[in-house]
Design brief:
Elements lengths: L2 H4 L2 H13 L12 H5 L2 E7 L2 E8 L4 E6 L10 H7 L4 E7 L13 H15 L4 E5 L1 H11 L7 E4 L5 H12 L3 H15 L6 H4 L10 E6 L8 H9 L4 E6 L11 H26 L2
Parallel strand pairs: 3-4, 3-5, 5-6, 6-7, 7-8
Antiparallel strand pairs: 1-2, 2-4
Helix pairs in contact: 2-8, 4-11, 5-6
Length: 282
């Protein structure tokens, strides 16, 4: 944006930081998702001292967690919820602070990860954690820091917090002198309790859990190359679904994508039960 080049660097950096933090008006439930949203059992938890609205579908023993992206909401997963529902499953999701039906004006990866940890305390290890966009990074951070899951799905996800900043910088066309100041503001104000957010907040886990990566070639929010970075750093088996023409959001409701994610989650559960059965056999 040309305005940032016309302002003194400190002023431009402060304005950019406010854009960085802004969640805007919470997204409303899309009409196509309204029925799924309406029949969820709603709850509430506290994450980092903030109220978080939760949603539950089903009451089976196999629990699947869905983690939405930045400036989004859990109802965006409605098509996937329909595909995953079954008598033996519980599907859980939440609206991060300042998103959807959760109150607040600010949130961060720390809030997302805290909400995931709280749900893990309630439900135990997940059969799968499915994240979209910023929810992918948040899911990996939570798993790396103790949340158990049998599989991971990353849809349109970014590799690390630095790539989020880089994408933001590209969108606003910020000059280098402003970028350096902005980076410092993010470190000092957003992550005051974190020594090195750029090293801590990455999509890297030690457990070799199966991973499905889904990304679209026309995604203008998160570059498709981010999926390659996640793939290269993952210690477990990785499956890929590369799409074309779905962009960053429509990918969540595409029938082909939803079917592939549902098949992957089902297969990971089958593999886990087969492995457990094999270990019990003398």
């Amino acid at each position: 944006m040309r305005v940032f080049r016309m302002l003194p660097a400190p002023v431009a950096a402060e304005l950019a930081y406010r854009f960085w933090w802004s969640l805007g008006t919470p997204e409303r439930v899309h009409p196509r998702d309204a029925d799924v949203h309406a029949r969820a059992v709603r709850g509430e938890l506290e994450a980092n001292g903030k109220r978080v609205t939760t949603y539950t579908w089903g009451d089976g023993s196999r629990v699947i967690l869905l983690v939405h992206g930045w400036r989004s909401r859990a109802s965006r997963f409605a098509t996937l919820v329909r595909a995953l529902e079954g008598p033996d499953r519980t599907i859980v999701a939440f609206d991060a602070p300042g998103n959807g039906d959760s109150p607040g004006r600010r949130t961060s990866v720390l809030d997302y990860a805290a909400a995931i940890h709280e749900l893990h305390e309630v439900h135990g290890d997940f059969e799968a954690v499915v994240g979209h966009s910023f929810g992918v990074l948040s899911s990996f951070v939570a798993v790396a820091e103790g949340v158990g899951t049998r599989s991971l799905v990353g849809i349109s996800g970014m590799h690390d917090s630095a790539s989020i900043l880089q994408g933001f910088v590209r969108q606003l066309e910020l000059p280098r002198r402003v970028v350096d100041l902005l980076r410092g503001k993010v470190e000092r104000r957003t992550f005051t309790v974190v020594d090195d957010p750029w090293a801590r907040f990455v999509t890297r886990v030690e457990a070799p859990v199966p991973l499905l990566l889904v990304h679209d070639s026309t995604d203008r929010v998160v570059a498709p190359a981010e999926a390659d970075h996640i793939h290269l750093g993952h210690p477990g088996p990785v499956e890929r679904l590369d799409t074309d023409g779905l962009g960053h959001m429509r990918i969540l409701s595409d029938p082909g994508v939803v079917a592939r994610v549902a098949d992957f989650v089902t297969a990971s559960g089958t593999r886990t039960r087969s492995s457990a059965s094999s270990r019990r056999t003398p």
